[in-house]
Amino acid sequence: MAGNQRFVAGTPEHPNQDAARRTETAPSQQPFAVLFGCSDSRLAAEIIFDRGLGDLFVVRTAGHVQGPEVLGSIEYGVSVLGAPLVVVLGHDACGAVAATRAAVEDGATAGGYVRDVIERITPSVLAARAAGHTEDEYFIAEHIRHTVDLLLDRSRVLAQAAEAGRAAVVGLSYRLADGTARLVTARGLEVPAGLAS
């Protein structure tokens, strides 16, 4: 979050982005976080969190939907690489969530595998609608919470790591216009007072 604050303020430090770091990380990696986010081209994790080589183990899919490959990649980051933090990163103006809302509300469908993405986001949209929400931010937040819950429900590795205090899973929502990331949900850790904003 400190890196995100530097990014927002326009004072990035660009840590771990030099030749020495490249040489240091060439033999192995020890990222401090796994970041599972949306594939959107406007939120590159290392940039918006002001990080560098070897810091983040990044997994991205449209609408941060998950299948076996995603779960395996995240489990690898936690169980093999030892990352103690998994971050689910959603964002406003998400095209995958908007397409799902259109499919639910208007019956608009997509072809190919885009339909699979929409089907995986549908439970989040339905839950937000059932709660009476109509604004984009609530649909995004619900989908982030749903993704965090699914990760812990589907992955015994992640659930056990969280229960044992070896890892935490948090959900953040990124605002494209101002670059801020805010906490939506956290599982497996006590949230420091300054983080919950």
TrEMBL record:
Region Disordered, residue ranges: 1-26
Keywords for this protein: Lyase, Zinc
Superkingdom of origin: Bacteria
InterPro entries: Carbonic_anhydrase (IPR001765), Carbonic_anhydrase_CS (IPR015892), Carbonic_anhydrase_sf (IPR036874)
EC number(s) reported in the record: 4.2.1.1
Feature: compositional bias, Basic and acidic residues: 15-24
KW Hydrolase (keyword) present: no
Family to which this protein belongs: Belongs to the beta-class carbonic anhydrase family.
Functional description taken from the UniProt entry: Catalyzes the reversible hydration of carbon dioxide to form bicarbonate.
Name of the molecule in the record: carbonic anhydrase
Organism: Streptomyces violascens
